[in-house]
Design a protein that fits this description.
Blueprint lengths: L16 H12 L1 H16 L3 E5 L2 H15 L5 E5 L5 H8 L3 E5 L10 H9 L5 E4 L11 H8 L5 E5 L7 E2 L2 E2 L6 E5 L12 E5 L2 H12 L6 H17 L6 H4 L22 H6 L3 H26 L16 E5 L3 H14 L4 E2 L21 H9 E5 L6 H14 L3
Parallel strand pairs: 2-3, 2-4, 4-5, 5-8
Antiparallel strand pairs: 1-9, 6-7, 8-9, 10-12, 11-12
The chain binds pyridoxal-5'-phosphate.
């Protein structure tokens, strides 16, 4: 049965009417709009080179294609065994091979003991390592760099979920040799779809710039599609109406699919226009999320002082609040109740990367227990700007009843 009451999306970066008007203005002044967006990004991130595309996975693919040109003898990309399916999709799209490393269950970063082992073999085949700021939790790029201890291996920082966040005063997206953001639907900031590449390395930028020339622009019909999608998001992401898209099966909301055949385009001036005023908007949205995160942390401490959140690690700017539930059974019970009540609690990714059917043959005898565990017992709480006090109270009540956090 479809619920037609207040229903929270698991993640949301609102698009409002003003943004859409700016988008249309952007179309009318195409060159200045796109140029201005890229210049603002360069200035904000204090970086020389910036490229904008149709998605985060298009951005990652282009980076990998450029690196492949640059280092033709190397063809392996090391990624976490539990991450967004867009990451392996992009590696395969770029014609490269996936190497996996399991996670540390506490930090959601690489398990560094395993990482050292994995780096010790076949290093001359390794093109790059991709650290991911999963949910916005900082991955330790300094530690990664010193563990790799080899300048020939490039660090590609996946800040798709972390635009606007920072760690020890250094902005996410600028810590690796090259980094990227996503401006997709459920990310920190959204232009319906979009991706941004940042790099301070002149040599990498030269290759990316060349690869960028082969990327087509959006067609007129595709831009019209983006416009309609932006209108739909503006109206239907609101908690009062979100039950509508949620009940339409072919939209496949919240599904994570592995698919290397995605489109790659240069970002349109409509999207650059949608992003107008992004610095202020991103700051506001980030502040709201941080307030929600802190509130959840406080509430969880009262429910379960032993939860991994009791140590008061400071999580700057999550786009979803991850929680490991100790049993599969309890997790399913929480999800079912949330579904009924419209709380927007969600699973994370459906499986570890080695268990994606199209890739499984490459990892037949390998196991990534933490990644597999995450797929089975992880929940995420919504923290976006539509989440209100009442929602947080009700979600905390539900978790207290479930009692296993
Ligand atoms: C969303 C995401 C991507 C890809 O971004 P899209 O814009 O959706 O293509 C890549 N990596 C991570 C970790 C993501 O969450």
């Amino acid at each position: 049965m479809t619920r037609i009451f207040r229903t929270l999306p698991p993640a949301a970066a609102p698009i409002n009417l003003g943004d859409i008007v700016s988008g249309i203005r952007g179309l009318l002044r195409a060159e200045t709009t796109s140029y201005r967006f890229e210049e603002e990004l360069k200035e904000h991130y204090n970086i020389m080179h910036c490229y904008t595309l149709s998605s985060g996975k298009a951005a990652l693919t282009l980076i990998l294609q450029a690196l492949k040109e640059m280092f033709p003898d190397r063809d392996e990309v090391l990624i976490p065994a539990f991450t967004c399916y867009s990451v392996p999709s992009a590696v395969v799209r770029a014609g490269l091979k996936i190497r996996l490393c399991d996670l540390d269950p506490e930090t959601f970063d690489y398990d560094y003991e395993r990482l050292s082992d994995i780096l010790s073999t076949g290093r001359d085949r390794l093109l790059c390592v991709v650290p991911v700021h999963l949910f916005g939790i900082p991955a330790d790029i300094d530690r990664l760099r010193s563990t790799i201890d080899d300048d020939a291996v490039i660090i590609v920082e996946d800040a798709a979920q972390a635009m606007g966040g920072e760690n020890k005063g250094r902005k996410f997206g600028t810590q690796g040799d090259v980094g990227f953001f996503s401006l997709g639907r459920g990310k920190a900031l959204s232009t319906v779809e979009g991706g941004i590449i940042l790099t301070k390395r002149q040599d990498i930028a030269a290759y990316i710039g060349r690869a960028m020339k082969g990327i087509p622009c959006y067609g007129a019909l595709e831009i019209f599609g983006l416009f309609i999608y932006a209108l739909a998001l503006m109206i239907l992401m609101r908690p009062t109406l979100f039950w509508i898209p949620k009940s339409i099966p072919f939209l496949r909301l919240g599904e994570t699919i592995y698919d290397p055949h995605f489109k790659m385009r240069k970002m349109s001036s409509f999207q650059a226009g949608l992003a107008r005023g992004w610095e202020k908007k991103l700051q506001q949205l980030s502040n709201r999320r941080m307030e929600n995160v802190r509130d959840f942390q406080d509430r969880l401490k009262m429910i379960s002082p032993k939860s991994s959140w009791a140590d008061q690690r400071f999580f700057p700017c999550l786009i979803r609040f991850p929680l490991r539930i100790e049993s599969v059974h309890t997790r399913e019970a929480i999800l079912k109740m949330s579904e009924r009540m419209g709380f927007g609690i969600a699973r994370s990714y459906p499986d570890s990367i080695d268990r994606i059917p199209a890739l499984a043959a490459d990892f037949a005898s390998r196991h990534f227990p933490v990644a597999k565990d995450n797929a089975e017992i992880l929940l995420t709480l919504p923290v976006h700007s539509f989440v209100a006090l009442k929602d947080r109270e009700q979600i905390a009540d539900l978790l207290a009843k479930a009692k296993h956090i």
